[in-house]
Each structure stands twice: as structure tokens, then as C-alpha cells.
Amino acid sequence: MFGRVCSSLVSCRPVLRVLQGGSRHLRHCNAAATTSLPSVCFISRSAASDFTSRCFASTSRMADKEELRKRLTPLQYTVTQEKGTERPFTGCFNKTYDKGTYVCICCEQPLFSSDTKYDSGCGWPAFNEVLDKGKIKLTPDTSGVGANLLLLITQPGRIRTEVTCSKCDAHLGHVFDDGPPPKRKRFCINSASMNFIPAAGDEGDANKS
Fold first, then answer.
1. What is the CATH number of domain 79-198?
2. Catalytic residue among 29, 104, 106, 188
3. Which DSSP letter does residue 100 get?
4. Chain-centre distance of CA 178, in angstroms?
5. What pLDDT, in 10s, does the model give residues 48-88?
6. Is residue 106 annotated as part of the catalytic site, yes or no?
7. 77 CB contacts (<8 Å, ≥6 apart)?
8. What distance in Å separates the CA atoms of residue 159 and residue 145, rounded to the nearest whole number?
């Protein structure tokens, strides 16, 4: 019924429900508090498993972030991991019209086809469709109004829709409903969040307009 928490995990210092004598008490597992706690905390096996998974998942995310910081340029990291935005008309793919596929710069998941790319004049690469809806996630973005509830109510148009990679959660850009027919979609995507893979036999100038 009960499992032991390895002492090496105590450093995470979560609040655990310690089961003693059939009653539940909330206590901190702190290696320094040896006078108030036994050296081993007894918790249910399911709680121990969940706790361990969360600790290792957190460590893994930190390792991934460090790996990305080393692999990406400062701008790519800021855009994909900190939801930044490159300056308009500066992205390397803004005027790229070669045949090929645009993939996530972080995990290389295919995102957009050159067949759906068009010149919107907005200053960022624009697409009217994604390769597959399962490749991206759409999330309401209220950063434009912050905590201003009045703006949230009176100007709902300022709430944008964020586009992120469904595989690694990298920030890509935003999608708007002002694109060309018939889709009427404009996926406004940062060049810094993508890489371009030319189609076979199409190795032309990636910056031709």
C-alpha cells in the first residue's frame, strides 16, 4: 500500500501527505528537518510515482532548455522559448518562394508547405494553411491587453491567437482571419522559428522574390 521516497528526491522539497496512524498531515520533506521528521517518508505508491515523474520531467525540461540555448541563435531562442517576435521585414524567409517545406527550428516537425505561402505585406512569412492541423496548437493570447479587463471587453479584437508547435511547444507566431480566400487565414510566422527544406530538385536561390 505504501512506498518509500528515495532520499535523493528529498532535495525537491515538495509538500507530501504523510500518512501516520491513519491520519493525514501536510509536512515538508526537508533533509535539514531531521528533528521533526523521520528519515523516510511513507506515502502511497501512486503519489510516489507521480512525484518522481514530475521531478524527472522538470529536470528533463531544464536540460532541454539548456540544449536549445546552445544550439539556437539568441533570436531563435527568444522567439521560440520566450514568445518573442523578430522585427518585421528582417526574417530570412520573408521573401522566400522556393518549393519546399518549412519545419520547426527546434524539433524539425514539418509545419507549412511553400504552396500555401504568399506575400501578405505584413513583414513576416505568411501562409494560408498549415500542413496538418495536428502539427500546431492554437491558444488565445491576451498579452495585448494584459490585466486590463475593460480592454478585454471593449476591444476583443486585441486578443490574438498564438500558434505553437504541437510537438515541442515552440512559439511560432499568430494566426489572423484576414487572409486570402477561400481559407481567409493568415498564419503570420517568425522566420526565426522555422527552417526550410527545399523540395527535391529545387535548390534555387532561397532569397529570390
1. 2.170.150.20
2. 188
3. E
4. 25
5. 556 555 554 545 566 688 999 999 999 999 999 999 999 99
6. no
7. 68, 69
8. 7
Each residue of 3-26: pLDDT tens digit? 444 444 444 444 333 334 443 333
Domain ranges of the chain: 2-71, 79-198
**Which CA distances in Å does 131 have to 27, 67, 115, 116, 148?**
50, 27, 10, 9, 36
Taking the C-alpha atoms of residue 172 and residue 203, their distance in angstroms, rounded to an integer, is 25
Mean local confidence (pLDDT), 101-123: 97
In the predicted structure, residue 29 carries a pLDDT above the cut 80:
no
Phi, psi of 119 (to 5 degrees): -90, 105
Closest C-alpha among 26, 31, 34 to residue 12: 31
- Alpha helix segments (H runs only) across the chain: 45-71, 74-82, 149-154
Rounded Cα–Cα distance for residues 144 and 152 (Å): 9
Residues 6+ apart with CB under 8 A from 198: 98, 99, 100, 204, 206
